[in-house]
Task: inverse folding
């Protein structure tokens, strides 16, 4: 499926996750965040960078992993990305939906 963000066409799956990470940039991430009523802050970007690094290293993502990351605590994670923090944050990060998310 093709989605247009800021006049740029990106490939997404039926859940809205990018299917080609090379199409991601910070502007795309900001627009994806706006779809979830999230205004990105430095802390959001810190989490997004950590998530992208984990995926690049083929590390599985989970809420427990976020907790152990030292980047953010669970309460803050839920506050920053309401409505399914791991699902929402990975979508903004342009990485595949974690297997731990249903």
Result:
């Amino acid at each position: 499926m093709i989605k247009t963000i800021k006049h740029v066409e990106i490939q997404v799956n039926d859940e809205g996750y990018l299917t080609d990470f090379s199409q991601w940039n910070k502007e795309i991430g900001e627009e994806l965040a706006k779809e979830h009523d999230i205004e990105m802050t430095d802390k959001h970007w810190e989490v997004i960078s950590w998530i992208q690094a984990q995926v690049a290293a083929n590390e599985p993502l989970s809420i427990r992993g976020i907790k152990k990351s030292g980047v953010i605590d669970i309460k803050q994670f839920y506050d920053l990305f309401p409505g399914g923090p791991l699902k929402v944050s990975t979508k903004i990060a342009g990485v595949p939906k974690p297997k731990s998310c249903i």
Q: What stands out?
A: The first helix runs from residue 26 to 34.
